[in-house]
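User: Structure with zinc ion, tokens only please.
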Amino acid sequence: METLAAMDAKLAALRQGYECSCGQTHHLSIADIEVAHNVLARIPDRLRALGLEGPVHLIADTNTQAAAGAQVADALRQAGFSVSETVFATPDKALVPNEPVLARLFIEVPITAEVLIAVGAGTITDLVRFAAYKMGKPFVSVPTAPSMDGYASAVSPLIVGGFKRTFTASPPRAIYADLDVLCKAPMWMIVAGFGDLVGKYTARADWELSRIINDEYFCQSSLDLMAAALELCTSNPEGLSRREPHLIQGLMEGLILSGIAISMAGNSRPASGAEHQLAHYWEMRSLQENCHFHLHGTKVGVATPLVLSIYNRVLGFDPSTIDLGSLADSHQGPEKVEAAVRTHYGSMAEEILAESHGKRLTWNARKERIGLIQSKWEEIRRTLAWLPSAEAVTEMLTRAGAESSPEGLGLPDEWVKDALMYARHLRSRYTVMDLAAELGI
Ligand SMILES: [Zn+2]
Ligand SMILES: [Zn+2]
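Assistant:
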């Protein structure tokens, strides 16, 4: 596979400012990325090479401190760095990125700290990314599990006032992922990362779909960045369940590159489509009903075959057979849809309605959309011919030892039905769920 090392030239070009065929000039602000064995010991030298020599504040939880944090702190102290630490007693899994946790960080990070080091997975990294941004200090990510694709991200999902919201934050100055640490990560975290990675199939399909139908901005190079890692991991999912280092490396690199693809595109299109809307819906529902469960990537993994089954159905459909008369009779106008969204989402409805305003169509607008889709149908089918079947992805997930069905995850039937019905209103982003609704499938 084209590993990160082999991509050095590409990443260097991005750091210089890469004039892309999509019409944009892309930049990469992450100065140094390494996914390899024995990286932890090299962190002091790498920091100095980046010009970061001052006091370091390291943030971890008890598990990630044992897995990597203590080793990083030792190596830094031996190399002459001054190191202070915040170690949360709760593991990353149970840590909630909310106000009290952030307050603790703001209290404990010394004003003299020159760089923050986040040793952990999703929650720790999101917390530190946000705190670093607010404090105007650079941060370095030391991932302890290939569990999600947010390591290179420039936004932080946080729980504020009981709701999950996404805040602007800083991307890391550097990412140092040690394979010896990653290979020992809990299996449920590894398979969650795999779930987030297979979600890129439907994310890409939704983006291609919207490019064709809505003329949406599209960047092929951002997708190409992740292709090799996706290919490697999906061709040998058992290897992941056996913790084979080159596959764990491929997974971690794919997840990091997916974050870079997002920053290239300027939004999360390359990495997030209908599968993320479903996962997001379930996440919201579990927050509301106070029953946190499963990592983000696990939910994305389960949602991907669901979305693929919508694709399989939509692509097997012939829109020239649409009976406009009967669709007109059953059409739900903007007021009706708005009322249904209000009833379903309650106190959150206002924000959601504002976000997905463009998805509530009058019959005339929908008729026009159907005509547009009919005229593009051949191109849509041709472009999406690469898409795997729902069964193929279910099999990949199973082979990796990941959950592949909502039942396996313990999601109530009602949550699945509601998600398929209402999740598309959470975001203005156009996906196959909108296409299916427009065509009345
Ligand atoms: Zn994701
Ligand atoms: Zn581009």
